[in-house]
C-alpha cells in the first residue's frame, strides 16, 4: 500500500506541469501555452546560445603558423592544412631574413567534425576559437567544408571570454581583435 | 436479374448497411485523429513544458494529416526473409479487430450499427483478434526483435484478456444482459436503495472499473505495459519492419482501439450515452447522446494517456505477476461479491 502514494505523486507531477504550461496566468485567465512552455518555436524565434557553446570553429589567419598540431590531434582528421615557406624581413636591422610558414589552405570539414574542441585546446598560437553560431547547414554535404575565408568570417561572431569566478588563479583568455 | 439486383441494392437493409459502413469507416480515422492530436501531441507536450506541433494548421491541428500523407508516400518495404503474405496481412487483421469492435458500440437509443444480444461478449472476442495480428507481424518479419516483441505481446494480451473479461462479468451480473444497449438501459433505469435514478455502475463496480482500466491499458500496450513495442529494448517490437501505409494501419489500430476501449468502459461503467434522471427512450437523446458519449470517452482516454505519459515501463515478470497474482484474484472476488449482493438484494 505504501507504493500507491508514489504513483499518485507521479500523476500529480505530470498534471501540475500540464496545467502550468497551459495556464501560465492562473486558471481564471484564458490558456496560453505559448507563454507557459519553456521551449521556443525555433525558426520564428531563437534562443540565445550560451556564450561558450560549441557552435562553429573560427580561425584567426595571421596567428596560424601551419604547425599542423590541430590537424594531427583531430580525432576525425577533418582539418586540412597546406602551407609554404616564405622569407620574412629580419627582426632586427642587419639580421638574417627569417623563414616563416605562409598558410595556403585551412579547411575544416564540418560533415566530419564531432565538435570535441581538441584543435582549439591544442593550438599554441591562439588561432582557433569557438563561436556559438550554429546555423550553417547545407543542402549538399560537400558545402560543409569551410575554407580559410569562411572560417575567418566566423571570427566576427566570437564573443569575449567571460571572467572566471572570484579567486580563480587562471587568467581570462583574450580574443585578439 | 438486373431488376433483382437493383431491388437488392436499394433495399432498406443494403442502404442502411452502406450508411453504417461509411460512418464507421469515417469515424475510425477520426478517432485516432482526435486522440493523437488532443493527447499524444498536445497533452503530452504540455506535461513536458513544451508546445508540440505548431506549424501545420492553427496550433498544429493538421499535423496528423500531414503525417498520414507522409506515410502514404513512403515505399512499402518488406524484408527479404519475411513471410510475405503473412507480413502483409498482419496489420490488416489488427485493424480489422478494431473495425469489428465498432459494430456494437452504441452512441444513442437508435444509433448503433448492430445491437447484438451478446454485445459485450462479441466485443471482448473480436478485441482479442488483434493478438493474432500482432503475433503474425512478429513472426513474419524475420527479425529477432520483432519476434521477441510479438511473443511478449502474445503473453501480455492473453494474460490481461482474463482480468478484462472478468471485470466485465461483474457488470453483466448487475445488468442481467450481455447487450451493450441493454447495459446502458439498465444503468439509466437503475436505482441504488431507492435513491437517484440512472446511476452509473461505477458506483458499485468501482473495483471492476479499476481492473478494467488497468487491463485495457495493458491490452492497448500503452506505456506502463508497452513491452511489446519497447523502443529502448526492442527498437519498436513487432512493428519494427513495417513502413509507410502498413505502419499507418498499426498506428490507426492502436488509437482506434484505445478509443473503442474507452467507449466500452464508458458504456459499462459510466452509463454510455444516457444521462442520469433522463428517460433513456427519449428521441432527442439520439442527438445529444453521441456528445455525452464523446465527453465520457475523452475523459476516460485522458486517464489512459495521463497514465501512459507518467509511468515508466514495467519489467516482463512484474507485468505477468501483476496480472495473475493481483488483477485476476481481485476480479474473481469482485464477481463473487457482485453475485452475492445480486442474490441478496
Q: Could you give the count of β-strands of chain B?
A: 0
Helix share bin of chain B: 55-70%
> Globular, elongated, flat, extended or rod-shaped: what is the shape of chain A?
elongated
Number of domains of chain B: 1
| Strand residue percentage of chain A | 15-25%
Mean pLDDT of chain A: 87
Order of helices and strands of chain B: HHHHHHHHHHHHH
Q: Uncertain regions of chain B: pLDDT < 50 for 5+ in a row?
A: none
Kindly report the spatial arrangement of strands forming the biggest sheet of chain A. Answer: 2-3-5
Describe the protein's topology:
The complex is a heterodimer of chains A (177) and B (345).
Chain A: H1 2-22, H2 33-36, E1 56-59, H3 69-73, E2 79-88, E3 98-109, H4 118-122, E4 128-131, E5 145-146, H5 148-154
Antiparallel strand pairs in A: 1-4, 2-3, 3-5
Chain B: H1 2-9, H2 12-47, H3 63-73, H4 84-101, H5 119-127, H6 129-140, H7 144-175, H8 180-188, H9 206-219, H10 231-234, H11 244-269, H12 285-310, H13 316-344
